[in-house]
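Check out one such.
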Amino acid sequence: MAEKVVAIVQARMGSSRLPGKVLLDLGGAPVLGRVVARLRRARRLNWMGVATTTDPSDGPLAEFCAGLGLPCWRGSTLDVLDRFVQAGRAAQADVVVRITADCPLIDPEVVDAVVEALLQNPGCDFACNRLPPPWKRTFPIGLDVEACRMAALERAGREAQLRYQREHVMPYLYDTPGRFGVLQLHTAPDYGHVRWTLDTAQDLEALRQLFAAFGGRDDFSWRDALTWWLAHPEAGALNAAVQHKSLTDVDARWEQHT
């Protein structure tokens, strides 16, 4: 029997740098709508849904998902790992693909490649196209895909104790060599410096320029986007100075809520 592959999109309204960012307009559609539209073109996904929090501020997210006919699982604000475990169980997933809603350029072919790498490599529990330093990233920031077997995710849910492991969902699967089978995909040349994620107003303006260049469509590939981006360095200059958050940035938020 084929394994059931479920994409779970991590989303919330309470972003510290750009509140409500996942429902902001991006070229005529909400950011989360862009993510969903692009994921629906992935061939290796059997189902998808959104994992958000039980905080009342995330009610509009649940309403938006209902309007799309999309499952929305609500759980802990800070223990995002548990949120994903519960969502994966509810979806009866064999494989969980983690996508974040601040990646409106997520590419279906990249998603398929990561899922294929996991499924076609015996002994692989976790596959991705990015890992945090000291590992090297070669795909643009904002094309991030992580996929794992549900059994590995449930084990992480039982065993992970550190704050960053709970909030960032997948670190327990890769932060200790040999604990799980890990595989990372790369691309060449190295485009790890290209920033297509949405954390700040500068990111939003840069992404709006990119989507405008494609007439507000969702069906362009990441390589199409890259061709335009490299030909228009003024867009990349808008968010070139934005610092990408690290795994250790979770500590202050935990102290505020625990």
Observations:
- The chain has one domain: 5-249.
- Residues 5-249 form a domain with the Spore Coat Polysaccharide Biosynthesis Protein SpsA; Chain A fold (CATH 3.90.550.10).
- Residues 82 and 158 are 9 Å apart (CA to CA).
- Residues 108-120 form the longest helix (13 residues).
